[in-house]
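Exercise 7.
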Amino acid sequence: LARGQVSAEADLAFHASIAEASGNDFYLGVLESIHESINGFMRLTLSLTRTGSRQRAQRVVDEHATILDAIREQDSERARVAMQFHLGQARHRLVDRERD
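Solution. The predicted structure, written as tokens, is:
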């Protein structure tokens, strides 16, 4: 992210890997069926992150790390809460560009 090399595809792959690992076929199916919409959303939020402050970018990295840590520790509740928080924050970053 610091070098601007994170792509929307990599971000989507991160989320798709989580969906696949969850074993939740419904979630994975939904993610696949709305791939184009999500891809556009992720491209936009990633663009805003790249043009935003370093702190903003670090918050995104930290959110992903929290999700990944919870998954590695097999703490499904913490992973669920972290993912909900991350998606909510992504929505806020998209809607409120001043929020750095």
